[in-house]
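Researcher: I'd like a structural prediction for the single chain below. Treat it as a standalone chain; there are no partners to consider.
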Amino acid sequence: MIVVASQRELVEHLCTSEVSAQGMTIGIDGFSGVGKTPTAQFLANELRAKLIHLDPFFVRDGRFAESFKVADFRRELDGASGPRLTIIEGILLADILSKAERALDCSIYVKRIGRGHLWYDRNKLERNPEELSKLDQAIVAYHHRVKPHETSAIILELEERPA
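Model: Treating it as a single chain, here is the predicted structure.
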């Protein structure tokens, strides 16, 4: 596992590895609101990659991965594959890819880092699920089961800036 502290450092790492090669697929995972989308947009611009956001494929019925529009996502992904680098970003990424029977060439996990270099969302993993929103409950269950924060190839630690 490699830890980087900025989007620029992430691009530099990807450019010096085989991960940014054409035809490869990079996935960006993390809790809601940590900076997955801006990171994915930055990478897509810097690496001239096709970007696929998972949000449009979620059915807003509170069942999240269970009611994900898998066929639509597969069509989008299959249309993106080929000679171009593809970046996929969104919550529950490993579950979605499993349902779509697809795999990544590189996984990136985005962590929001607060004061004292503490992982901002870690407390959600330790809280009573009933205290969380349904979305956070699904994300926490996913983290306990899949552990993307421990198994991703690259961890991007974004410091939270005071407002």
